[in-house]
Amino acid sequence: MEALRKRRKTRQIEIGSIKIGAEAPIVVQSMTNTNTRNVTATVAQINSLAEAGCELVRVAVPDMEAAQAIAFIKKGIKIPLIADIHFDHRLALAALESGADGIRINPGNISKADLKTVLAAARVKGAAIRIGVNAGSLEKDLWDKHRHSSAAALVESALRAVSFLEDNGFENFKLSLKSSDVATTIAAYRLISHKTNYPLHLGVTEAGSLMNAAIKSAIGIGTLLCDGIGDTLRVSVTGNPLAELPIAYGILSALNIRRLGVNIISCPTCGRCEINLPLLVQEVEERLQGVKADITVALMGCVVNGIGEAKDADIGIAGGKGAGMLFKKGKAIKKVAEADFVGTLMEHLTEMLGGKFSNGRRL
User: Fold this and answer.
1) CA 115 from chain center: how many Å?
2) pTM
3) Contact yes or no for 132/106 (Cβ under 8 A)
4) CA neighbours within 13 Å on the CB side: how many for 247?
5) Runs of H (alpha helix) within 169-276
6) Which CATH superfamily is domain 263-352 in?
7) Cα(27)–Cα(291) distance, rounded to whole angstroms?
8) Over the stretch 227-245, which tens digit does the pLDDT of each residue have?
9) CA 178 to CA 9: how far, in whole Å?
10) CATH homologous superfamily of domain 13-254?
11) Residue 304, CB-side half-sphere exposure with 13 Å CA sphere
């Protein structure tokens, strides 16, 4: 197993009960798409996200009613909550009063005087700040100077904010420098990582639908993680935010950084495949959904070299014509009829995992 570049050493900050930076694990977060004013729906979605592995959640705060709803939302959830604020600093103050653990501020749309007021309130409440620089909302003078949302422009905006927060004695903050352009995002984070040691929140903004978001995030976030850059991340997917978590953990798992759930590997199939491997993979994925166990399951379509290619897997099936071989750690265990693949695999997994999901449901 090849080692990644050593993770960049950053300061450590706290958002509620979560530590970010330094030696803390890379934190996965998401954002609700419910109406924040609808407390019941928002609490339900946050709890679903938490069950799927979300460790920090952000909610939109478009008005005072949404800011005040945070107090009631907090009572129904167990993970820290970040209020997403644009334009009106009074919403940030109200969100902090309602118990928000952190505030996300875009320096491109809140004045320095108003930000100073927010910092004072956050210090009193012990809340964190995320300075979220976005390519689409740079300060006008930076846009005029750079003529486009370049990596250099994003970094200049971020460093300007860093200086302002430090001048006001506030250090419990992290930074993000996001663009919908993957190359710009990578360049901006690489540049800022040499200029400050505050924690960095990774993401490719406006990444699009599921397939596009997975591709852009895997390249953008994955590249930066390989560089040792990043302390927390969010994968942005248009639609249901629950789709973000498997991609986020998939990226971390692929790089052997963190794993939440079973790692299923399967071959792409070729002319030697004589079983319905796509159906097998689908059925096993469905059966193992929700299992939070650090285990690798291999589903291979060829009995000739399937076991060899997946010898590091904890357990697997290598298919042949109408049958296959159950194997563990590269050693054949027994021959299994194709109709019994899933049942046999689940029996052995039940034994290996103690018979239960993390949430108590039986395999």
Assistant:
1) 27
2) 0.86
3) yes
4) 29
5) 182-193, 210-226, 244-254
6) Sulfite Reductase Hemoprotein, domain 1 (3.30.413.10)
7) 19
8) 999 999 999 999 999 999 9
9) 21
10) Dihydropteroate synthase-like (3.20.20.20)
11) 6
